[in-house]
């Protein structure tokens, strides 16, 4: 399959800075009465199932290590029971790890006393829950102000701040509503607002959008990306949905049975799955939503230079058996196209290419998704040029090239 | 062969004697305190002319039920009927006994209920006692109450407190334990102290369940004050008792009706004290 251009998917959001904000080292969590014994057995090579049968202890996390960079969205992904939610809860110590280290901003939080821990939780960490977890007896404003209330901020000040944040998540004016009066999407905006009110550096999001229906979920994902671009928080996002992980993640950690199987950018995970488990996971992904025009385009040829004469263009069209050809400048700026008929008459009448150039050409952006491209391509009987914001032509997409790319990626995964 | 009888009754008697011997000062103090409280409260209610009190209670119902006109009118009519039947003074004594017993029962059961919600051990220890308290026939409480406090309204209140406590305690524990895990995590994740968690998350979320316990507590207190009339606690129950003794169906029925009216008013007030979430 020569002629395909492989281009890196550039993720939305800023590239992560190099400084890690969270550092997790050899984290292990065992649920049960005798974690020592369970771990000893496990290190002797017993499987988790055998360990459970013998000690009734569950090894939820085993020797997990990773770093999260400041400003990135780090996605923990895995099936239920893979330990992703446990891992998230270890970071704010809702669950106490059995072994290992967790540093936040260079401060070790495992073994920290209650007072220090409360300080970290109040100022550095915000959490967003799967089922929203709004306090039912409080109105929206008081829910959003909850974190500040816990900190002892005065009522006027915390209400003012809560109003601002509600405005930011698009719920200005809902302050006096009760949680039960809101839809799921609105409730999760409140959940997001509540976490943002105390302006923490890190947001822990536990399956935050999983309880929402697909359309609302997509809106919320877009809004999170937008919010992230503006606020530059560090986000740890737990999900079981690979599409969501690929869309939101700067990097993704794929988890299985309490361990991280692979950490990488979405592109690395998709194109270079580290083992059979990741491959299998990736095989289920809806490629039409992950791939963009860049991934499915073919080399932009043949094309005619605008300085060339109509004879050259005619020759190229005859050679490739096509009825039109795109015309570009020396710097690959797309000028338009010429048809076979026009070119034949231009050769007879001695005209230039610029005389017969047609400029009413539909183009697609490099990051256009497949559904977007498909809606254009069905109306067109020739390939579509992929053109960036500077007018440069990067490639061509046709029905055949989309199908070929899907087949290739699908078969590879 | 005859099975030797275990001396459970004798043991109970010994314990009772022992308490009486060493704690009579405490029993006396409780007895005096309660007697003063009952008569003071009773005098206060009777000092207000019946029509004025009827209006006041109706207004209270009007506000508590969030302007339920039907209930307000029924309350006023019910109280007028009691007044008309000549049972007003007895009813006020019953109200005093019920309220004092309920306040004491709640002051004990809600804190213990909270403690039991936080400690599995305490919960396990309490469970058999609560089962015992709830299934033991209520008349049985009257016996030690009489032994320790003599006859009158004080032992009546004590027996009522014991009888009315278990549901309030149980529902407090249940309500707090039923607070969703995610809400507890919210409190912890946002850095709440244990105290903040209790007062800002657990108790408010558990409040509807706790209030159901309060409601049960009042209803049980009302039924127990009637039974307590057998040991000389006055009020409407005494009137029923006299009706039984004289086989006077009319007298018994009138007093019974007054009790039902009080029960309905107590019930509606306590049921509406906590707003239902979402429906304003």
UniProtKB/TrEMBL annotation, chain B:
GO terms for cellular component: ATP-binding cassette (ABC) transporter complex. Pfam families: BPD_transp_1. One of its GO terms (biological process) is glycine betaine transport. Residues 91-270 form the ABC transmembrane type-1 domain. Keywords: Cell membrane, Membrane, Transmembrane, Transmembrane helix, Transport. PANTHER family: GLYCINE BETAINE/PROLINE BETAINE TRANSPORT SYSTEM PERMEASE PROTEIN PROW, GLYCINE BETAINE_PROLINE BETAINE TRANSPORT SYSTEM PERMEASE PROTEIN PROW. This is Glycine/betaine ABC transporter. It comes from Methanocorpusculum parvum.
């Amino acid at each position: 399959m020569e002629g395909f251009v492989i281009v890196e998917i550039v993720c939305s959001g800023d590239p992560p800075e190099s400084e890690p904000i969270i550092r997790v080292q050899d984290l292990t969590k065992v649920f049960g009465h005798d974690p020592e014994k369970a771990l000893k057995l496990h290190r002797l090579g017993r499987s988790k199932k055998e360990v459970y049968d013998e000690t009734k202890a569950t090894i939820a996390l085993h020797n997990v290590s990773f770093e999260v960079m400041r400003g990135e969205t780090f996605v923990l992904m895995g099936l239920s029971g893979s330990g992703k939610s446990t891992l998230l809860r270890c970071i704010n110590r809702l669950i106490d790890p059995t072994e290992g280290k967790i540093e936040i901003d260079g401060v070790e939080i495992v073994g920290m006393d209650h007072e220090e821990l409360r300080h970290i939780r109040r100022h550095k960490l915000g959490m967003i829950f799967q089922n929203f977890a709004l306090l039912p007896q409080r109105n929206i404003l008081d829910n959003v102000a909850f974190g500040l209330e816990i900190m002892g901020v005065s009522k006027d000040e915390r209400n003012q701040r809560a109003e601002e944040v509600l405005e930011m998540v698009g719920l200005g004016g809902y302050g006096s509503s009760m949680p039960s009066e809101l839809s799921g999407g609105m409730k999760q905006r409140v959940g997001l607002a509540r976490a943002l009110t105390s302006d923490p550096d890190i947001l822990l999001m536990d399956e935050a959008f999983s309880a929402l229906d697909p359309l609302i979920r997509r809106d919320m994902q877009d809004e999170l990306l937008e919010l992230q671009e503006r606020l530059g928080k560090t986000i740890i996002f737990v999900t079981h949905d690979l599409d969501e992980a690929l869309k939101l993640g700067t990097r993704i950690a794929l988890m299985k049975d309490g361990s991280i199987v692979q950490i990488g950018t979405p592109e690395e995970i998709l194109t270079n799955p580290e083992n059979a488990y990741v491959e299998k996971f990736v095989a289920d992904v809806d490629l039409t939503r992950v791939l963009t025009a860049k991934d499915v385009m073919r080399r932009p040829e043949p094309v005619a230079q605008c300085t060339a004469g109509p004879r050259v263009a005619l020759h190229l069209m005859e050679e490739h058996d096509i009825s039109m050809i795109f015309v570009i400048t020396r710097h690959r700026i797309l000028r338009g196209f010429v048809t076979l008929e026009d070119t034949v008459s231009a050769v007879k009448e001695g005209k230039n290419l610029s005389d017969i150039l047609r400029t009413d050409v539909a183009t697609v952006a490099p990051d256009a998704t497949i559904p977007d491209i498909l809606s254009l391509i069905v109306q067109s009987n020739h390939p579509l040029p992929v053109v960036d914001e500077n007018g440069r032509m990067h490639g061509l997409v046709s029905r055949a090239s989309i199908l070929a790319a899907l087949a290739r990626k699908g078969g590879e995964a | 062969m005859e099975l030797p009888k275990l001396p459970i009754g004798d043991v109970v008697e010994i314990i009772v004697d022992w308490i009486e011997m060493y704690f009579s000062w405490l029993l006396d103090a409780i007895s005096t305190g309660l007697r003063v409280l009952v008569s003071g409260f009773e005098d206060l209610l009777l000092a207000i002319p019946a029509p004025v009190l009827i209006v006041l209670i109706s207004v209270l119902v009007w506000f508590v039920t969030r302007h339920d006109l039907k209930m307000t009118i029924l309350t006023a009519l019910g109280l007028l009927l009691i007044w008309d039947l000549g049972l007003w003074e007895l009813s006020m004594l019953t109200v005093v006994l019920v309220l004092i017993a309920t306040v004491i029962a709640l002051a004990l059961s809600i804190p213990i209920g909270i403690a039991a919600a936080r400690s599995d051990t305490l919960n396990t220890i309490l469970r058999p006692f609560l089962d015992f308290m709830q299934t033991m026939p209520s008349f049985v409480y009257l016996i030690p109450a009489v032994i320790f406090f003599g006859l009158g309204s004080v032992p009546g209140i004590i027996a009522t407190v014991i009888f009315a406590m278990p549901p309030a305690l149980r529902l407090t524990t249940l309500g707090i334990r039923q607070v969703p895990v995610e809400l507890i995590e919210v409190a912890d994740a946002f850095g709440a102290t244990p105290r903040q968690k209790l007062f800002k998350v657990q108790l408010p979320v558990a409040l509807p369940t706790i209030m159901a316990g309060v409601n049960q507590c009042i209803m049980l207190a009302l039924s127990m004050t009637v039974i307590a009339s057998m040991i000389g606690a006055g009020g409407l129950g005494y009137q029923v008792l006299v009706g039984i003794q004289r086989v006077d169906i009319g007298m018994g029925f009138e007093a019974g009706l007054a009790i039902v009216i009080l029960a309905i008013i107590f019930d509606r007030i306590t049921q509406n004290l906590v707003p239902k979430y979402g429906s304003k």
